[in-house]
Design goal:
The chain is an alpha/beta fold. It has helices spanning 31-40, 51-58, 110-116, 133-139, 142-145, 164-175, 197-200, 206-240, 243-246, and strands spanning 3-6, 9-12, 21-25, 43-47, 64-66, 69-70, 76-83, 99-108, 124-127, 150-153, 179-183, 192-196. It contains nine helices and twelve strands. It starts with a strand and ends in a 6-residue tail after the last helix.
Length: 252
């Protein structure tokens, strides 16, 4: 069992290949979608309400992009708040980045989107919709969830968008539909992976294996940060030393 993180989102990569389908809700600049698409050459669909970011995604042949927002609310149009930090833009007034514009965007339900793009089964559903993930996930029923093998979700309760209690209620709700839970983040719920053990044909000890992968990934990230900090500091110290001093005793 192999779990890897793609730009902050944990994904079980076993079985992902060119025939897999990835649906990315809240694609932003497409880092996650493009990383997965380039790695596995799978069919990747991006949903992004920001028209500027959508245009960038639409110009990339590796993905199929839709200028939409997926919500649990009545389809139609909604106000979308564009922020200085693109990843904070949202259908709800942002609190973590300054709003620089407001636009009207088209909204659809997840069911109608799946029908429009003719997706029968979603191998990975990524949800990062800036505070509306709780509302969306709580609205999904068996008709939709039975078509999803794994979800990778960024909850925003640590930023004041929803509460830990609401997140735990969603986790319990999805457990009722057969999903097991792997937390990729240690201190909040910003990286939660939901795996449907039956559809993914996971072994009986998959929870133990997933926990081992979580700690392996955590240690790897920590070592990476230490390495970058150490070598970054080394490069800075060398740069700060005058050329004459770097040459040792030759010029002394």
């Amino acid at each position: 069992m192999r779990i890897e993180r793609f730009y902050g989102h944990s994904v079980m990569i076993d079985g992902l290949n060119a025939s897999s389908t990835i649906l990315d809700l809240g694609s932003c600049n497409g880092n996650f979608a493009l990383a997965v698409a380039n790695r596995f050459h799978c069919k990747t669909f991006c949903v992004e309400p920001n028209p500027r970011l959508y245009q960038m995604l639409a110009s990339n042949p590796a993905v199929s992009a839709f200028n939409l927002a997926v919500t649990s609310r009545t389809p139609g149009s909604a106000r979308f708040y564009v922020t200085e930090s693109p990843e904070c833009s949202s259908l709800i007034p942002p609190t973590t980045s300054k709003t620089i514009g407001e636009i009207e965007c088209q909204t659809v339900t997840l069911e109608s989107l799946l029908t429009t793009i003719a997706i029968k089964q979603v191998d990975v559903l990524k949800v990062d919709i800036e505070g509306l993930e709780i509302e969306l996930l709580a609205s999904l029923d068996a008709h939709i969830l039975d078509r999803v093998n794994q979800l990778t979700v960024e909850f925003h309760e640590s930023m004041g968008m929803g509460t830990t209690k609401q997140v735990l209620e969603v986790l319990s709700y999805l457990k009722g539909y057969g999903f097991g839970i792997v937390r990729g983040s240690f201190f909040d719920y910003s990286d939660v992976l939901f795996l449907h053990a039956e559809r993914l044909e996971l072994p009986p000890n998959w929870r133990w294996l997933a926990t081992a992968e979580k700690f392996r990934n955590g240690i790897s990230r920590r070592l990476g940060r230490i390495s970058r900090k150490r070598f970054g500091g080394l490069r800075m110290s060398i740069k700060d030393v005058p050329l004459r001093q770097r040459s040792g005793s030759v010029h002394e």
